Automatic annotation (TrEMBL):
InterPro entries in alphabetical order: Cep192_Spd-2-like_dom, Hydin-like, HYDIN_VesB_CFA65-like_Ig, Ig-like_fold
PANTHER family: DLEC1 DELETED IN LUNG AND ESOPHAGEAL CANCER 1, HYDROCEPHALUS-INDUCING PROTEIN HOMOLOG
Main location: other
Keyword Cytoplasm annotated: yes
Domain Cep192/Spd-2-like: 189-275
Protein name stated in the entry: Beta-glycosidase
Species whose genome carries this gene: Leptospira haakeii
Record key words, sorted: Cell projection, Cilium, Cytoplasm
Cellular compartment(s): Cell projection, Cilium; Cytoplasm
Domain HYDIN/VesB/CFA65-like Ig-like: from-to ranges: 306-393
Pfam annotation, one family: HYDIN_VesB_CFA65-like_Ig
Length: 504
């Protein structure tokens, strides 16, 4: 069989949890598909929806927004507009599914007919059933003997949404708390330190604050002036927490904000206070998390930052951590910021430029992710001082993570015309190389994945997902094998996939 028997329909890359694209850049949602050869101009197998919209292979069907734990059904129709009969060869199901969120899509019914003459159609039904909020991506696969399309792929996109409800957010200035986080006070013995707390209703129904109360071993050293109140959607309410230490010591308590938020009925914030005698430094450490929300990590735990996917050998953008001295004497920063945990060698730190921080001054340090291999990586960043907690030692920690990234590229091609490829010992082989084309499997830099083998169905599968772990232009070719041609056919013509960033 010569290479002319192949024709690539498209090559595209799949982002885990997002839509596909050809030029695999960006790494975010809402990407568009750019086929190498637009299949919309190719006759043969395609799918249409109930409104008559036609989707060629590689297209994306948007299923809109659906409430979590509910379901939205869609009837689709497989149509053949080629001048030949097409057989749907999927076994056991003519239509199957895949993708990171495939469990949130259900194929309710299969096509009643698997043989479609020119002009014939057969319907099937799918449902989108989101189990959580956010964009959910998957794809449908329809295997066939269509000489033009081969394996048909339809991408699915839907969004799970929360039911209308109140939603509580609690903040202090630019710092946004999370439940069970902590805020820090310091004051001279016999003095007072106060903070203004803002409660916002970010939901779509009234937020009813039924009670605000203090508890804990040192609750008497703190006070608050909050009252029961109803907060309209997108509106705020403020109250004050004060710290009144009776001695030079440490104090702890907590404050609870009870409301009708269905997800957080009691919003608890830990209160840590330091009573000082005379002048003392007081450290404050904060950063912006992955949602661009300022987080105070001075003495709290449980905060984290993810650098996402970065190709091995490359370096991420930096994450800035800010240190402030809120006290009345110099803060000691001579102890270097350290990395520990599972993969400390996969991250780097640029130390603060100052080793001593005057009152009301600030400094920063940087963290970067530079993976040496694929897979998940994690470490712990620790900033320690000898006098940051009102003259006593302090420790601030941040969990960091990232992934040595990869990018999946789905390759499909028309079936071989050599019948023996679709019998025992028949197979396809996909080979690829970065940066330049190739003509033989043994050429330098060529990678060939495990063969796509005949498995007893009417046809050997004619698609494969390859995985690359670096950016660049990848050249891809396919060849076939049979019991009569163990050395394989000539390679198909090459096709290119440009990868700019990892997908997972």
């Amino acid at each position: 069989m010569g290479s002319g028997y192949y024709r690539f329909i498209f090559i595209l890359s799949v982002l885990a949890g997002f839509l596909p694209q050809l030029n695999c850049g960006g790494g975010g949602g809402g990407m568009k598909l750019f086929p190498i050869f637009p299949s919309s101009g190719i006759t043969g197998l395609h799918v249409s929806d109930s409104a008559g919209n036609r989707y060629s292979s590689g297209s994306t069907l948007s299923l809109g927004s659906v409430l979590i734990s509910s379901s939205s059904s869609n009837t689709l129709k497989i149509e053949n507009n080629g001048n030949f009969t097409v057989t749907l060869t999927g076994n056991p199901d003519a239509v199957s599914k895949g993708g990171i969120h495939s469990s949130q899509y259900v194929i309710n019914s299969q096509p009643s007919s698997t043989s479609l003459a020119d002009g014939d159609s057969s319907s099937f039904q799918i449902s989108f059933q989101p189990s959580s909020a956010g964009v959910k991506a998957a794809y449908l696969i329809i295997n066939s003997d269509d000489p033009n399309i081969g394996t048909y792929i339809l991408y699915l996109k839907g969004t799970g949404t929360e039911a209308p409800a109140p939603a509580i957010q609690v903040s202090e200035d630019s710092f946004n708390f999370i439940p069970n986080s902590q805020t820090n006070f310091y004051a001279a013995s016999g003095g007072t330190s106060s903070k203004t707390i803002t409660v916002k209703n970010s939901g779509e129904q009234d937020l009813v604050i039924s009670n605000i109360s203090l508890s804990g071993p040192d609750a008497s050293s703190f006070s608050e002036n909050g009252i029961p109140v109803t907060i309209s959607p997108k509106k705020t309410y403020t109250f004050t927490i004060s710290f009144n230490p009776s001695s030079a010591s440490t104090f702890s308590a907590s404050i609870s904000i009870d409301s009708n938020d269905p997800n957080t009925a009691s919003y608890v914030i830990g209160l840590s206070g330091v009573g000082t005698s005379g002048n003392a430094p007081q450290i404050s450490v904060f950063y912006s998390d992955n949602n661009n929300i300022s987080r105070d990590i001075t003495s709290s735990t449980g905060f984290s930052y993810s650098f996402g996917s970065v190709f091995p050998g490359e370096i991420s953008s930096s994450k800035t951590i800010t240190i402030r001295n809120l006290g009345s004497s110099n803060l000691d920063l001579t102890t270097p910021v350290s990395l520990s945990g599972t993969d400390p060698g996969e991250f780097t730190i640029t130390q603060p430029t100052s080793t001593s921080l005057a009152p009301n001054a600030s400094a920063t340090f940087l963290v970067k992710f530079s993976p040496t291999s694929v897979g998940s990586k994690s470490a712990t960043v620790t900033l320690s001082t000898s006098n940051g907690k009102g003259g006593n030692s302090s420790s601030s920690v941040l969990a960091v993570s990232g992934a040595g990234g990869r990018r999946d590229v789905i390759v499909t091609w028309a079936h071989s015309k050599e019948h023996a490829v679709h019998m025992a010992s028949g197979a396809y082989r996909v080979c690829y190389k970065k940066g330049s084309d190739f003509s033989a499997q043994g050429d330098s830099g060529v990678v060939c994945d495990a063969d796509v083998m005949y498995a007893g169905d009417p046809y050997t599968p004619n698609y494969k997902t390859i995985t690359v772990s670096s950016a660049g232009t990848w050249y891809i070719r396919v060849k076939s094998f049979s019991q009569f041609n163990a050395t394989g056919s000539a390679f198909s013509k090459s096709i290119q996939a440009t990868v700019s960033s990892p997908g997972y």
